[in-house]
Amino acid sequence: MRVAGLARPDLLSRQRGIQYDSHMGIESQVVGGLIGIVGTAVGLVIGRFLRGFGRIQLHGSDWRIVYQGQDAGAGLIQVPPDAAKFGKFHFQIDVYNSREEPAGLRQPRVEFVADGKPLITFAPQDADRSRLTTERLVYDKIEVINLAPKQWSHWNIVQAFAGDELSKIRQSDEVYFAATDARGKRRLWLIASLKPQQDQ
Q: What pLDDT digit, counting tens, does each position of 19-48 carry?
């Protein structure tokens, strides 16, 4: 027997179940969407971090320093350090960028140091890029070092010196290659220890 105006308990239960399932479906979609957005954002951050993860490696080699004077005809000859009026140093650097994105070094310098304190600094010159003027051979200065991802970059460095520069170089005990990286950090790499072999 049916009573007018009264809902059947089984129908009410079904309707509530349908409403409950509907709400659960919407909530699941919202939660799934949020998880997808967060996952994408986290993936982008991690990917960016991993691309920038790594470091710049620099290896110096083939350090040479030559002290020079003049012969009777005013030509340059190699002499002992204490008799020198001029000089020239050479070395090579190999630079590796281990990151997944480009990197670079700016404001490169060659620093001669004694007891941990810089005595004299040179802007490095590229021995592979030069031009002949009416007076002498001029080398291009190295202003920046641009580094492709996962690749080596090779540089030959040369520098002539005289006068007070010669005196400060002879007082130095170490030589470094210095540069500023993309994060603004000043980096130092040891190129050579000069004492005691420098004056031999």
A: 656 666 666 676 667 776 666 655 444 444
What does the block give as tokens for 137? 């051979």
Interval 69-95 mean pLDDT: 92
Are the CB atoms for 89 and 160 separated by under 8 Å?
no
Q: How far is the first Cα of the chain from the last one, in angstroms, to the nearest whole number?
A: 120
Q: Measured between alpha carbons, how far is residue 160 from residues 10, 94, 176 in Å?
A: 100, 21, 17
**SS3 helix, strand, coil % of the chain, rounded to 5?**
30, 45, 25
Q: State phi, psi for 27 to the nearest 5 degrees.
A: -60, -40
To the nearest whole number, what is the mean pLDDT of the chain?
83
**Residues 107/124, Cβ–Cβ less than 8 Å:** no
- Record the tokens describing residue 45, joined without a space: 């951050």
For the domain made up of 56-199, give the CATH fold. Immunoglobulin-like (2.60.40)
Mean pLDDT of 154-181: 96
Look at residue 135 in the predicted model and tell me its pLDDT.
77
- Within 10 A of 28 (CB to CB), how many other CB atoms are there? 10
Judged by DSSP in three states, 120 sits in strand
Would residue 168 be called left, alpha or beta, if left means φ above 0 and alpha means ψ between -120 and 50 degrees? alpha
